[in-house]
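Section 5.1 Outputs to date
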Amino acid sequence: MLFNEQILICVVDQWQSDCYPINNEDPPVLRLMKICGAIVFCLVLCAGADAKAMTKSNGTKHHSAGTARVAAKVKGHAGGSRHGRGARPTLAVRRTRYQEHFSASSYADNLTLGDVTEGEDPVVRAAAIEALGNMNGTAIAINPANGRILAMVNQKLALSRGAEPCSTIKLTVALAALEEGIVRRDTPVNLGGHYHLTLTEALAHSNNLYFETLGRSLGFERVKHYANEFGLGELAGYHIQGEQLGTYPDEELPAALGGVGRMCSFGEGVSMTPLQLGALVSAIANGGTLYYLQHPETTEDIATFEPKVKRTLDIAPLIPEISVGMEAAVDYGTARSLRANFNQFPVMGKTGTCSNNGTRFGWFGSYADTPNGRIVTVIFLEGGRPTFGPKAAELTGQFYRALWDKSYFLQKQQPVVEATPVVATK
């Protein structure tokens, strides 16, 4: 497993160690600017000491394609230098570049083949198809007020057993840490040296180290308890034909593979389906009701639709704490690509990028405050280098743009027959 959400540039000398985050979901030019800035900082730091720079390359399996790792270390030389001044600091700069190779394609044809569409909203479905284009993935739109799936494009993939959730797992970890009182949204968490980060910024920039720290503070048992409570490890749909189960492991990941920290930073060892993520984000959007998702297949199903509650989550007080970070991700963080296509109303979401066995995954789960109420969207992509979380966010912006251009949000929606939700048993 290769993780892509976070790399660090570290400047280390004999007095201190400071880490500056660079996110692989930043555009390549921005990443290059950050790397160059760190290198310049190192050179200025040691210029007064007559530093000598040495550069070498070395491959590693821990960093994503197109990223670099630079470390500067001040070394002392023994006292008999030709200047007779004893220990003298020198600068060593290590640059690591790892090229990840992908065997899967990011593009596919006939994505909608076999989809059951009679019970879907045709305008929403058309917008989702337009946004997805020929990207190998699935797009799902949900009404969080009742759990109805408005559109599900590429149902074969949407109903599959899913994939590692990548950094979208951070939503469940954030809610768990908030519920346990470990942090609030503005609590500075020490990540080593003088480097501190708050929950809001950690969600915005998808900081792996921050959520590894939270995971170790919570411990595996509590992490698993909350993940299960939020719907991971369970079927998300109610009698949706063909839905497969995403699983949550019963045992902690071995320490050699990163333990509970790695499980909390990008979901190592976890399998999550697009429907599971959609149900979780819907619960955040509606104030804490975890609905069974339902996919009407006929007009009769629409006419007789009745919401089915799986359980009520006690997260209403926590939602303001987490939603700020989700909105920050869209405004200036890893999901800011969404704003290239759409900025008419607020969108709150979380990206995810990781890879496994030659296939890269790109996730984006979000909800939007539209003039007609909230709508939840999940886009999940599979493929190679063009596939990653910010791309899924970009496509989500295209989805909202397509609906906006069709005046969807200005239309008065027909009222749904509001039956009293029932707690469903399966």
